Amino acid sequence: MAKAAEPPSGTRDFLADDVRRRKAAFDTVSAVFERYGFDPLETPAFERLEVFAGKLGDDASALIFKILKRGVHEASGEADLALRYDHTVPLARVMGTYGSKLPSPYKRYAIGPVWRADRPAQGRFREFVQCDLDTVGSSSPLADAETLWAINDALIALGVADFRFLVNSRQALHGLLEAYGIPEEAGTKVLGSLDKLDKATPDAVIAELADRGLATETAESLVGDVIATDTDRIRKQLDTTERGRAGLAEVDKLVELTAGLPSGRVVFTPRMVRGLDYYTGPIFEVTAAGYPGSISSGGRYDGLVAKLGGPDMPACGGSIGLERILAGQAAADAEAAGLDVALTVLGAEDEVLRLANRLRAQGLRTGVYLGTSGKLARQLKWANDQRARTVLIYGPAEQEAGEVTVRDMTSGEQTRVPVDDVPAHLQR
Amino acid sequence: MAKAAEPPSGTRDFLADDVRRRKAAFDTVSAVFERYGFDPLETPAFERLEVFAGKLGDDASALIFKILKRGVHEASGEADLALRYDHTVPLARVMGTYGSKLPSPYKRYAIGPVWRADRPAQGRFREFVQCDLDTVGSSSPLADAETLWAINDALIALGVADFRFLVNSRQALHGLLEAYGIPEEAGTKVLGSLDKLDKATPDAVIAELADRGLATETAESLVGDVIATDTDRIRKQLDTTERGRAGLAEVDKLVELTAGLPSGRVVFTPRMVRGLDYYTGPIFEVTAAGYPGSISSGGRYDGLVAKLGGPDMPACGGSIGLERILAGQAAADAEAAGLDVALTVLGAEDEVLRLANRLRAQGLRTGVYLGTSGKLARQLKWANDQRARTVLIYGPAEQEAGEVTVRDMTSGEQTRVPVDDVPAHLQR
């Protein structure tokens, strides 16, 4: 394959079956979010460059696709627009654009592509769909709980069977650091080390914490507490500081408000940190049997909308890793959509088209042979390539008798049916 | 509104009701195209710059959004990628990428955004949805006819009531020029003048043709023939040249193969030219009562796929002006989606959430009050803002009685219903 003929590095063409499978997944998730009263939002593929500039960290900024100025300004080599990097920055912009015209609180979902100039790798693309739902303008714990409920229902609707919400609280994490006498400035790095406990061994993390200047005893005790199955140990620690108690109360409220979910679905997980430091309250992550890493995550991020240039409003939300889920299911449902009916063309073209359109009118996916061969065998091969379930043959003999030969492509069985009865015959 | 808060010039944010209305239209059209055996195709939002370079005319090339190289190459001010300008160039690229892996002929539709750095104006955007269907690899007139049938059904499904296909043939047009002794090199300009006959008066067009060097008598005769209601005059002219006869045969075949459509739906329109000169065979345009200009167009373009860098294959297709149709209908269906049920929160939060989720499970769009006020009046105002049809009140008195007050927001009528009976009560 010549390089020029490939889609650009890190992007994909989606042919028929892929488009259908992806669309079905997006529609499934939308339908769930709609039931929860979330509204869809679609922003342009690009924003003014300044909407992103300074709003993302350096690492993220390097991944932005920038659009060159146009016309006489093209020669300057400068950019003024940037492709959408995520759905959160546009959401903050929209809060500023429409303000009080939006429902309050504003509950919205966005399912659409974002673009990042990341190094392409297995499962990592430069154009991929992000699926976000957020509630802006509510500080109620009900909003946090609704996020989990809605994601729970969406994952079930997507066919993800065995999954758990790991929940924690940023406040609890800060309280934890206080309880262990870890200075504020060392906090981010220590939390970063704890976050590795899902992959690394406790000993490796203890060693890393020691490298970061913690007394070995403190490191051992901290790691021991956060991975203990019995959370009473950590609860005791958290109870010693104000922030710890506030964080614990957040976690307990979230667990209480999701008590209607199957037992074991929502689990207080003290070691769970979430990489992004803009979270301010409860946080969660979803792990599922058969999928690597997490397939969903989110939390409360009360200061973020203002930081991104929007009004100062409390907010919480979450994101579903649809691409990861779709990739995990690719092998499972490789079933493809063929034609319901294929019509051969052996003369009488207008009658064939008219019959085809009667079948289409009753919802059957119907194809007509558009090639040049007048040979039935060649046309049957085409029908077979189209994965047609039924083939209609309307040759000279059939035309004379006013009948159509209906061939079942699975059994090979053939029946002669009067032309006018074909739609009813196939309806069955 | 601060400029920084607006979406970029020529683009739009789509809030809830707009997204729903647009998605419904796209799904409607997709469903029709699927019935005709067309496959969906989604290509990336951008292609390598060289895929577009030299493939479009100068006017179009100036409208391409170019993406700056990334990382260390950003400083060069050079671009290597371009946002999708249309769906045709990517289709030609895909024919080259997948070749024989695609069905033959390849019937595909594409409904998705394209980007053009045009000067924004009323109804002209820099990001807008194009809706194309094309058949690549068939020279059969059945393929041309199927395009019209599919577009016919799609327009009806979209609620466009009163429309006509104006059909002509590029071959017929060339034959016409020959018949009138107009030299080949003057042809494009003469056809350009004739194309104005839908807006300008015949006299104005005759004058323009005279300016272009035609004898006044020839100009009068030509214009008279192409606008005559009785097409016999033009048929006689076309019959005098080989290309004219071939073109006439194309038109007649298309009319014959669409005879199943309502009478008067497909009309031979000798003056109809279509601006783009890549068409090689039958061409069409759709005009509809209540919509300005044409709402759909297309034709056969046998040489184009090769010219755009794909394999040399015959092709035909058409495009539906979905944005224009949606704009024309905007006023008509302003009906908006509110909540089916709004739940107030006056304590017992977990019970409220659980009830909400039972209602969601039966498909009702259900919202829970997420604000901070404990006052019923304030919460009812929220429910009203959400355009809720029904409000559920679960205050202290109701909680004690194990009942819910169900308030019909249209009539104002209130009923007390046992908590467990609420889902069944609302199902009605």
From TrEMBL, chains A, B:
Homodimer. L-histidine binds at D86, H87, T88, R116, Q130, D134, R274, Y278, Y279. CDD domains: HisRS-like_core, HisRS_anticodon. Signal peptide: none annotated. Its EC number is 6.1.1.21. It is found in: Cytoplasm. GO terms for molecular function: ATP binding; histidine-tRNA ligase activity. It catalyses: tRNA(His) + L-histidine + ATP = L-histidyl-tRNA(His) + AMP + diphosphate + H(+). Belongs to the class-II aminoacyl-tRNA synthetase family. Residues 34-326 form the Aminoacyl-transfer RNA synthetases class-II family profile domain. One of its GO terms (cellular component) is cytoplasm. Keywords: Aminoacyl-tRNA synthetase, ATP-binding, Cytoplasm, Ligase, Nucleotide-binding, Protein biosynthesis. It comes from the Bacteria. GO terms for biological process: histidyl-tRNA aminoacylation. It is an enzyme of class 6 (ligase). This is Histidine--tRNA ligase.
